[in-house]
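A reminder from the course coordinator: this example appears on the midterm review sheet, so study it carefully.

Given structure:
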């Protein structure tokens, strides 16, 4: 399936983030996912469609059922992109700590 949506738009929705968390532990069929959210299968199917279009979910045919599971590779790509910001922020906080420590020593 062609990726048509932005990954970050997909995970901006709290329901879709909750679906990802739910599927992190096990693959599930849409009916089982809908039961967890006390919502219609159609609403859950729309969320699943968006997550699948972004390649965050993959589907697997098991008999007559389709099961969805997380695409670890795509999640890892998102994590690597976010990690850049974590590194920058950690550097900035470390620099701020040094400045504050220096100011504290000067005030003694």
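Designed residues:
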């Amino acid at each position: 399936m062609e990726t048509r949506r932005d990954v970050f738009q997909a995970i901006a929705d709290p329901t879709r983030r909750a679906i990802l968390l739910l599927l992190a532990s096990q693959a599930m069929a849409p009916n089982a996912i809908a039961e967890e959210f006390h919502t219609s299968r159609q609403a859950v199917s729309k969320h699943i469609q968006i997550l699948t279009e972004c390649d965050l979910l993959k589907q697997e045919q098991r008999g007559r059922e389709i099961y969805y599971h997380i695409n670890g590779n795509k999640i890892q790509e998102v994590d690597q992109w976010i990690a850049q910001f974590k590194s920058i922020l950690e550097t900035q906080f470390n620099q701020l700590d040094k400045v504050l420590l220096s100011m504290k020593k000067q005030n003694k």
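The chain is about 70% helix and 10% strand. The helical segments are 7-10, 14-25, 30-37, 41-53, 72-107.
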